[in-house]
Amino acid sequence: MTEFDSIKAQTVAFLCGSIFREHIYKNRDDAQMEAFFAQAEESAPDSGKFYGAWFRAFVAVARNDGKKSCDNFLGALEALSSIKDASALSDDLPAFLQQGFAFFMYIGDEESARKFWTEGAMRGFFAKPDTESFFRKLFAKFNAKEQFWVQFQPDMFVDEVKARTKAKSDYKKSAETDDALLKSINDADEAAFIAAAAGCDFSKRLINGVSPLYYAIQRKGTIKSGAGKFTDDIVQIQAESMVAKLDLDKLPEEMRNKQILEIFHQMRSTYEKSGLGKIMFGAFFGEDDELPQKSDALAGIIKRLVELTPDVDSFSKDTGNRTATNALLLAAEIGDEETVRLLVEKGADVDKPLGFAKFGMRYKDGTSISTDIPNSAVYRMISFSQFGVLRQYLERFPAKAKRAMTAKTAKCDITPLVYFILSTLYASKDEESYGRNKKLVDEFLPIFTGAGAVINENTAFGSAEKLLGL
User: Fold this and answer.
1) What DSSP state is assigned to residue 27?
2) At what angle are helices 212-245 and 253-268 packed, to 10 degrees?
3) Using CA atoms in the order 49, 29, 168, 208, what is the torsion angle rounded to 10 degrees?
4) Are 172 and 135 in the same domain?
5) Which of 17, 201, 204, 226 has the highest Cβ tally under 10 A?
6) Which long-range contacts (CB under 8 A, 24 or more apart) does 53-60 make?
7) Is residue 319 part of a domain?
8) Where are the alpha helices (DSSP H) in 246-369?
9) How far is CA 46 from CA 10, 42, 49, 79, in A?
């Protein structure tokens, strides 16, 4: 009996995959799909009515059939009440309830959406509505357009082109704002920025919790990195958020690692494979052919913001792990040479560390050495391998850079040159990368010494001279 139940569970899992991942309905007619739905209902007699209605709802959404979508989602919800043992559905129920809630919120049917949330709360998947105001607050802050496309990615639709166009339009509407200053930066409209900035006190003004200068630098960096990096970041953030919500610590290590990998795979499928990440990027930042012009316009806005901001070091953002970041550190991290130059010329503090990070090396004999790394401009450039901005900084501002070149302490027993050698040459993974990194170190050695680095100054890891075998 147990073996038979296992076969039924595997069959249902296969049917779910065929609908939700392989989208088999795209090349099958109505009669074939009805036969498929019937097979689903027969494979799991106790829960077949639920699966049949859910599959029909999903396919109806993919075919843009609103009435069938509504009827079948509600039918599947009703079918749950007649299932004797719903524990077998534990892996599928959260996905169903999230889909149903997002769908009804998207079409503006809050009454039906409330039914899905209430069911999810009763089964322990969603927060319990403790007061009547719970739903008012939930509905007010819920971004129905964004969440709909997360649950129903454009590639699942029979008419993918139409779905992608609609998704982009929805995300653009989600990004709309009445804040004129924010809108001018988002639109990379320098003329509109000048008008919106008139009378602003940039020592106090914030945009989405950060200074306008920080926000503009961040936006320019995202545009420079492109849709691929944006999608990777979304996948990482969403996957880590989901892992944090799950109680995985009680699982054996192998099962925990497998679960985490599955979550990352799911997020990569949601945002990368489906193309949703690129659609979001296009809606928020612009299409590929628009990006160079937007980047240039943002450079002009950043230049004005540097001029208008009384103290460019006054705002800092906590990043966790004992560190924070500000306009200069962010510009250094993303390799924005022009902005780093403007900030240093304005008087940004290049030496003050916003926290410290641990750095260590483990050697072949099993010994290890570690020290703190100052979270300051030059170390930030090295940490993020932004060698273009590092070169500019050392060559253009040697007097400012010099102070950090020999400023090691007992807490931070390292120098920028030693850190540069260790994090490039000593971090080489193979002979080919070692050869590239050796050329890089040889190229930068005179640039470092020109900015005041001393090659025979000893550190916890030895001197640069010793590390290079000079």
Assistant:
1) G
2) 130
3) 10
4) no
5) 226
6) 53/79, 54/96, 55/15, 55/19, 57/99, 57/100, 57/103, 58/19, 58/20, 58/99, 58/156, 59/19, 59/25, 59/33
7) no
8) 253-268, 276-285, 291-308, 327-334, 337-346
9) 15, 9, 8, 10
Range of the domain at 427: 354-467
Q: Do residues 300 and 367 share a domain?
A: no
The residue among 126, 125, 138, 165 whose CA lies nearest residue 149 is: 165
Total H helices, total E strands in the chain? 23, 4
Same domain, 113 and 209: no
Question: Can you spell out the DSSP letters for 334-362?
Answer: HT-HHHHHHHHHHT--SS--SBEEEEEEE
d(CA 169, CA 436): 45
> Residue 42: which residues within 8 A CB-CB, separation 6 or more?
48
Residue with tokens 């160079």: 292
Its sign, for the CA torsion 57, 61, 65, 69, is positive
Structural domain contains residue 343: no
Cβ atoms 107, 113 nearer than 8 A: no
Backbone dihedral angles phi then psi of residue 17, each to the nearest 5 degrees = -60, -40
Closest CA to 340 of 389, 391, 396, 295: 389
Same domain? For 269 and 399 the reply is: no
> Is the distance from CB of 219 to CB of 298 less than 8 angstroms?
yes
What is the spatial distance between Cα 410 and Cα 364, in angstroms, rounded to a whole number?
25
Q: What is the pLDDT along the chain (470 residues), one digit of tens a residue?
A: 455 455 566 777 788 888 888 999 999 888 999 888 888 888 777 788 898 999 999 999 999 999 999 999 999 999 988 887 766 676 788 899 999 999 999 999 999 999 999 999 998 888 898 887 999 999 998 999 999 999 999 999 999 999 999 999 999 998 889 999 999 999 999 999 999 999 899 999 999 999 999 999 999 999 999 999 999 999 999 988 888 777 767 778 888 888 888 889 989 999 999 999 999 999 999 999 999 999 999 999 999 999 999 999 999 999 877 899 999 999 999 999 999 999 999 999 999 999 999 999 887 778 889 999 999 999 999 999 999 999 999 999 999 999 999 988 889 999 999 999 999 999 999 999 999 999 999 999 999 999 999 999 999 999 999 999 97
In sequence order, which residues have a C-beta less than 8 Å from that of residue 236 and are 6 or more positions away? none
Q: How many domains does the chain have?
A: 3
C-alpha dihedral sign at 294, 311, 320, 359: positive
Task: Give the side-chain half-sphere CA count within 13 A for 442.
Answer: 8
* Co-location of 429 and 294 in the same domain: no
Distance, in Å, from the CA atom of 317 to the CA atom of 320, rounded to the nearest integer, reads 9
On whether residue 387 sits in a domain, the answer given is yes
Tokens describing residue 458: 């000893």
Evaluate whether residue 123 is within a structural domain. yes
Q: How far apart are CA 58 and CA 52, in angstroms?
A: 10
Say yes or no: 128 and 189 in one domain: no
